[in-house]
Design goal:
With 371 residues, this protein is an alpha+beta fold. It folds into 4 domains: 8-60; 88-171, Elongation Factor Tu (Ef-tu), domain 3 (Beta Barrel); 192-269, GMP Synthetase, Chain A, domain 3 (2-Layer Sandwich), CATH 3.30.300; 273-369, no CATH class. It is 31% helix and 22% strand. It has helices at 8-23, 33-59, 67-76, 179-191, 199-206, 245-258, 286-303, 327-335, and strands at residues 88-94, 100-101, 106-108, 114-117, 121-122, 129-136, 150-153, 163-171, 214-219, 226-232, 264-268, 271-275, 278-282, 342-347, 358-362, 366-369. The strands form 5 sheets. Strands 1-6-4-3-7-8 form a 6-stranded antiparallel barrel.
Length: 371
């Protein structure tokens, strides 16, 4: 039987009845001490009822609960929140032969972000360089550094040049998983429990890696017993959402630990195919252009797929993704934008589609004024 929350007036009346019964009163006069006490207690009780109702309706379940609730549900179902990770950089150190840097030697970027040397290195003879691995002092995306960037010793070391060059990223640093992204993963875990290696399982495996947002799984990718897996990192926008080689390796390694041992996994980054619409618009104002851009971004987020680069001989085996976005949906997205009165989509003239193993992303939109 459902519990009906009593109204404030009902609570006050109940308390007045209790006071009258307890003190043997015939009535409680307005503005009397008993009347004030009844109203004060009724208000406090009504607030407590509201707090309990809010907790029952919102905080008990992961779809509406607060951060602590989502984390608890995720923990119960073996889906922990992804913590921030430490960036790791491969660097080249120069100096004189025999110059040595000990473990923990500190480097920093020009903006003050600091790194520690992972293992002792010694400068060689010819060339007079050494390779080292730096690990960011603080976890998070701030540690990510472009190739060819300079990192410098915070304290001079004899026989070693102060500046070192970043060759590549060994491991990308990631911020702690956003709570709303984590909520989605927890709900996916509840709605699609592990099933021994299904498509949903592989999507779940890939999303255990921080920053992975959308995943495409291609059964029988290169034949029976093989699985293709591709993904993007939407959190990188407005920069490219296409993952780096280091991230592809990270996802391959993570999924390999979780997948059925009999499946051969091939993880790859999709090739980016830019869709550059040309739109004649009425009215051609900044607000309408912004609204159309937002609608097209949302459309591509919902509809874009990695085109299946499967062996043509295997067509019909497993999932086939065309990667196409119909022109009708593009026109619909433009039409529903707030403020749009009329438009003509000049380009593309046919359903845009990426190449094999590619995915459509939104490039530059050209707006013209529609007469």
């Amino acid at each position: 039987m459902a519990f009906n929350r009593p109204s404030l007036s009902t609570l006050v009346d109940r308390i007045k009845a209790d006071i009258k019964s307890g003190l043997g009163l015939q009535a409680i006069l307005r503005r009397s001490f008993e009347d004030v006490i009844a109203k004060a207690l009724g208000g406090a009780s009504h607030t407590l009822h509201g707090h309990i109702q809010y907790g029952i309706e919102n905080d008990f379940f992961p779809d509406t609960g607060n951060e602590e609730t989502v984390i608890r549900w995720g923990t119960l179902y073996g889906t922990p929140r992804n913590d921030a990770t430490f960036a790791q950089l491969n660097i080249t150190i120069s100096g004189t032969t025999g110059g040595t840097l000990v473990v923990g030697t500190e480097f920093q970027r020009s903006d003050g972000v600091k790194f520690l040397l992972d293992a002792e290195v010694t400068v060689g003879a010819s060339p007079a360089t050494a390779s080292g691995l730096l690990v960011a002092v603080d976890a998070g995306a701030d540690g990510n550094t472009d190739d060819a960037a300079i990192v410098s010793l915070t304290s001079p070391v004899a026989g070693v040049e102060t500046d070192a060059v970043v060759d590549s990223t060994a491991v990308e640093g990631e911020d702690q998983e956003d709570i709303e992204d984590y909520r989605v993963r927890v709900l996916e875990r509840l709605q699609s429990p592990p099933s021994g290696g299904t498509v949903n399982d592989y999507i779940s495996y890939a999303k255990t890696v921080t920053s992975v947002t959308r995943v495409w799984v291609l059964p029988d990718y290169l034949g029976a017993g093989t699985v293709g897996l591709s993904f993007v990192e939407d959190g990188n926008a407005p920069a490219s959402i296409i993952p780096s080689p280091a991230k592809v390796t990270e996802v391959q390694d993570a999924v390999t630990l979780l997948k059925p041992i009999t499946a051969d996994l091939f993880t790859f980054a999709p090739n980016e195919t830019l869709m550059n619409p040309v739109i004649s618009l009425k009215p051609n104002t900044a607000d309408v252009r912004a609204a159309i851009t937002a609608e097209l971004e949302d459309l591509i987020f919902r509809e874009a797929q990695v085109r299946n680069a499967v062996n043509p001989a295997l067509v019909g085996m497993g999932t086939q993704y065309t990667g196409k976005i119909p022109l009708s949906k593009i026109n619909e997205a433009i039409s529903i934008a707030t403020g749009e009165d009329d438009h003509v989509l000049t380009f593309p003239t046919s359903n845009p589609q990426p190449g094999e193993g590619g995915i459509l992303t939104l490039g530059t939109i050209t707006f013209n004024t529609l007469a």
